[in-house]
Each structure stands twice: as C-alpha cells, then as structure tokens.
C-alpha cells in the first residue's frame, strides 16, 4: 500500500469533543472523509446531532452524536463506553472542546479561573486517560489534543491568563502521556492553532472587535480557517504517523515566529 493510501482511516473508529461546530466539526468531517466512523461529542446535543447527520450524508460513514460535558468524569467514561459499543471500538480521538474567558488577572475571579482550567485542561486529562485506558488494553491508538498558540505566546491586547495557562498545560500533559505510553502503542500529540475564524472568535462580543488588531500583527494578515488544521489531524490519527508522538504542531501562519 502506498503512503498516501495508508493515510486513509477506513475501518477506524474515533470521536471528537467540541465537535458540534468550529474546529472540532471540521476535523470530525475530515476523519469521516478519510473513511473513519465518528462520534460527534458535545454539550450542545442538538447542534451535535445536526453535525453528525451532515457528516453521515456527506461521507457515508457511521456518524453518531453523543451529549457529554467533558469536565464530568462519569459523563466522559459513559461517552467512551458508548463510542466503543456503537462504533465497535476506538482507534483515535481528538480532545478539542475548549472555552476562552477574557478578564484581567486582577479582576478575574477564582471561579472564572477554575472554569477555564476545568474545560480546557482537566477535560483533556479525563478524555485522554479514559480513552487511553481503552486503547492501552486493546492494542493501541492515537490521541490528538487541541492546545493553542496561546501555550507559546501571551496574546495581546486581550487579557486571558487562565486560557494561556490551560493551553500550556495541555502541551505538557500531551508530552507526559506520550512518554508514559510510548512503548505501549498509544501516541499523544497536540495542535496549536493561531487565531481561527470560528464562533469562539467571530461571535464573541469581546474578541470580535479585536480581529483587525490581530490581523495587523499576523504575518499573513488574516485569520486561519478550520479546514487549514484538519489534514494534520487526519495524519496524526492514521498509520503514517507511527513515529510521531509527544509533538506539538504549530498551525498559526507564522504568528509565533517573532
Ligand atoms: P467553538 O466555540 O466554535 O466550539 C467549541 C465547541 O466546544 C462548542 O460546540 C461547545 O459547545 C463545545 N464545548 C464547550 N464546552 C464544552 C464542554 N464542557 N463539554 C463538551 N463540549 C463543550 O470553538 P473553536 O474555535 O472551534 O475551538 C475549539 C478548540 O480550539 C478549543 O479548545 C479552543 O481553545 C481551540 N483554539 C481555538 C482557536 C480559535 O481562534 N478559534 C485558536 C486556538 C485554539
């Protein structure tokens, strides 16, 4: 089998969290286009159902929607169990759900800090370890986490210390799991997108007005698109990336190069 053919995901089964919309929706669609059966996991079950129907209609794979709050251990366990039961296994997952709380550090409440860390970092620990335990016991798998360029730089002008700290944590968690599981055939990698045009940025009353300022700082002068991130995730889920683990992929149009 040639290398490009080997990149396909036919017969594989996986899930994406935060997949009802945005980056997660786009990677779920790309996994399905590559042939994988897919679970669209999100708190917003109505939107997740619409996304799963769209993916199934466009690609012909099995696509299911699962309601899950990724900060709740019991819900994550039940979600992984449902993926295995309904899709017939679990070969890869993309822990992607996240939120951004913007507040100056001296005004941020401890509750806001904990909320951002819980959704962005604790959830990745839960998703990766619960999915990972299944993969370790069933021959292996590939885990992809969504970090951010905010793990590497401090975004300006908006204050977002909790978001930045949470995403830096995602990268170190990714590397730690990659080392622990390197000899057991479970690979763990992360992606670090720059500013991407999704509801998180385009519909946020605090972030949307900043887009012109970000574009003025961006070497490419524009936001990225979700579809500009998806192919690396297909690569990571598949069998041509078997020597790739513990890596973080910067997908930011050179924003972090200076
Ligand atoms: P989005 O807001 O468009 O979509 C996020 C999805 O996650 C939503 O469908 C939401 O319902 C779901 N979600 C939120 N909390 C959840 C929870 N507790 N349990 C389950 N689902 C939950 O965001 P996006 O722009 O697509 O971002 C996806 C990921 O990419 C996030 O981790 C984000 O931090 C990261 N990211 C985004 C950008 C960007 O500029 N958009 C840049 C870098 C990294």
What topology does this entry show?
Layout: H1 3-6, E1 13-17, H2 22-33, E2 37-42, H3 45-59, E3 63-67, H4 73-87, E4 92-95, H5 110-137, E5 141-146, H6 161-181, E6 186-193, H7 199-202, H8 211-217, H9 230-237, E7 248-251
Bound molecules: nicotinamide-adenine-dinucleotide.
Walkthrough of the structure:
By secondary structure, this protein is an alpha/beta fold. It has a single domain, classed as Rossmann fold. 44% of the residues lie in helices and 15% in strands. The protein has nine helices and seven strands, in the order H-E-H-E-H-E-H-E-H-E-H-E-H-H-H-E. Helix 6 links the parallel strand 5 and strand 6. The relative contact order is 0.15. The model has no long low-confidence stretch (mean pLDDT 97). The structure holds nicotinamide-adenine-dinucleotide (NAD).
Form type: globular
Question: In whole angstroms, how far apart are the ends?
Answer: 41 Å
Number of E strands: 7
Strand order of the largest sheet: 3-2-1-4-5-6-7
- Treating each run of at least 4 consecutive H or I residues as one helix, how many helices? 9
Distinct small molecules bound, one entry per kind: nicotinamide-adenine-dinucleotide
Q: What is the correct CATH architecture?
A: 3-Layer(aba) Sandwich
Return the average pLDDT rounded to an integer. Answer: 97
């Amino acid at each position: 089998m040639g290398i490009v053919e080997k990149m396909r995901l036919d017969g594989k089964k996986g899930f994406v969290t935060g997949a009802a919309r945005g980056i997660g929706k786009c990677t779920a669609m790309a996994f399905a286009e590559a042939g994988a059966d897919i679970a669209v996991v999100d708190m917003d079950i109505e939107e997740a159902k619409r996304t799963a129907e769209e993916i199934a209609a466009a690609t012909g794979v099995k696509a299911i929607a699962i309601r899950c709050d990724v900060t709740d251990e019991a819900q994550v366990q039940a979600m992984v169990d449902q993926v295995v039961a309904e899709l017939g296994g679990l070969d890869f997952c993309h822990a992607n759900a996240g939120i951004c709380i913007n507040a100056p550090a001296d005004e941020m409440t401890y509750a806001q800090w904990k909320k951002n860390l819980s959704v962005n970092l604790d959830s990745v620990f839960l998703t990766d370890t619960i999915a990972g335990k299944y993969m370790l016991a069933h021959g292996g798998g590939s885990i992809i986490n969504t970090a951010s360029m905010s793990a590497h730089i401090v975004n300006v002008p908006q204050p977002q210390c909790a978001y930045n700290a949470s995403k830096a944590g995602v990268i170190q968690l990714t590397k730690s799991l990659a080392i622990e599981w390197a000899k057991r055939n479970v690979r763990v990698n992360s992606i670090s997108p720059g500013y991407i045009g999704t509801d998180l940025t385009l519909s946020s009353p605090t972030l949307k007005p900043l887009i012109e300022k970000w574009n003025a700082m961006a070497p490419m002068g524009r936001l990225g698109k979700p579809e500009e991130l998806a192919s690396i995730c297909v690569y990571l889920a598949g069998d041509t990336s078997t020597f790739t683990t513990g890596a973080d992929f910067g997908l930011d149009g050179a924003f972090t190069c200076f």
